[in-house]
Fold this sequence. Notes:
This protein is mainly α. It contains 9 helices and 5 strands; from the N terminus they run βαβαββαβαααααα. The protein has 2 domains: 3-104, 3-Layer(aba) Sandwich (Oxidized Rhodanese, domain 1); 127-278, Ferritin, core subunit, four-helix bundle (Ferritin, Up-down Bundle), CATH 1.20.1260.10. 36% of the residues are buried.
Amino acid sequence: MPIWDLLKPVPGWSAAEAKAFMQDRKPWEYVVLDVREPVEYRDGHVPGAIHIPVGILPNCLEGIDKEMPTIVVCAVGGRSTSAVGMLLKAGCKQVFNLNGGMKAWRGMRTRPMKGMTSAIVGGSPNLEQTVALAWIVEDATREFYKILGAQVAEEYAKWAFKEIEDDEAHHQRTLEELYRTIFFRTPPSGFPYSLLSEWKGTTVEGGQDLNVLVSRLAGKPVTDAVETAIAAETNALDMHLLMDRKAGDKEARRVFRALAGMELKHIDKLTKLLGEGGQPRKS
């Protein structure tokens, strides 16, 4: 792109405007395009953001949905301004620069967590295995919140973690019903482990090992537990949204969108547990 094109104004939103737009819609009704370098993206990004560094974006324009509202983000807004110009020239209808980039963003973002793994099951699981895997991860996460509730002294935190623990059990029942709806049969005997025989079942949402996570939080303030839980749920949301975008059929997307919706509800509950300045609420 010629240097003078960078000086042309492009449609843009403040971080507050972009956040309001996103909150009024389902995550699959818009696209966040992150044009930073890989190391920047790994350090934290908007959950579900598609990653295409600006340097290779010209080679990827054919694969971009030109009708989908798209918010483009970089570190501070410079590279994304260039990317918005490219997308507009390629015929994209609704493209907006995130003014100020990730530096200005105050919404959800993923967070690298020690011990996190994205390769939680070998190979490429089919849809049936994906539902089974989601059930097992929900089970480990339910246990995580149960242990958190036993570790904290604050009654309000115990109540909140118990509520989310119960939610996880409800999510498991939802996945079982989703299985019946998609496959027109009840889950097989031994479900879900009969479908994932090598699975150990200690990975919680977001790719963390249950035992490592619990050990790390032992004796820590309740704020640390809540913030770690938010990070885990946000990373899980990111995974489900990216899998939704890669899904090849509507039934697979149905599963991933249901899972994403579950994570969003938990993030909202956990965020409300924190008061101003990141301190837990006592009401």
